[in-house]
Amino acid sequence: LKEENASLRSKINKLQMLSETQADKMKKLERKLQENKIKEEKEAQDLEAMVQHVEQNLQLMTKRAVKAENSAAKLKQENALLQVQLKNYKTENEALRLGQSSSLAAVKRNADLALQNLLTVITNSQSSIKQLVSGAESLQLVADLLKSIDRISEVSEDGQ
Q1: Whole-prediction pTM value?
Q2: What is the DSSP code string of the chain?
Q3: Higher confidence at residue 102 or residue 77?
């Protein structure tokens, strides 16, 4: 019986040691489990924060993309308008070039016509000037005759 008791005590001691070892292991595992839970919660929070940050960035990028699309559409409209204006200006420029050529020809014709009219006026005025000079000479002769007649009449009235 003593031997059996000693054997049982030995087994009990071994079992107690085994139980203590397992209790220590269990405490370590519980701590590890708790640490893992905390770590997972922190990772989940970090992941949630990262997801929120990515969502915010996505919203900002979406706003920027919409703004860029609107800006691009406006620039396309402005470009189309400028293309139309450029085409109109080119057409107007070409018309002005053609008009300038025809205007230059018209100016030359007008200048030639004005020159011919001027030459005619000069010729006519020379003739008129000659007539005026001739008329003035005639008037001078008449005036001289009238003076002579006045003298003759004065001399005749005095001489009577």
Answers
A1: 0.42
A2: -HHHHHHHHHHHHHHHHHHHHHHHHHHHHHHHHHHHHHHHHHHHHHHHHHHHHHHHHHHHHHHHHHHHHHHHHHHHHHHHHHHHHHHHHHHHHHHHHHHHHHHHHHHHHHHHHHHHHHHHHHHHHHHHHHHHHHHHHHHHHHHHHHHHHHHHHHHHHHH-
A3: 77
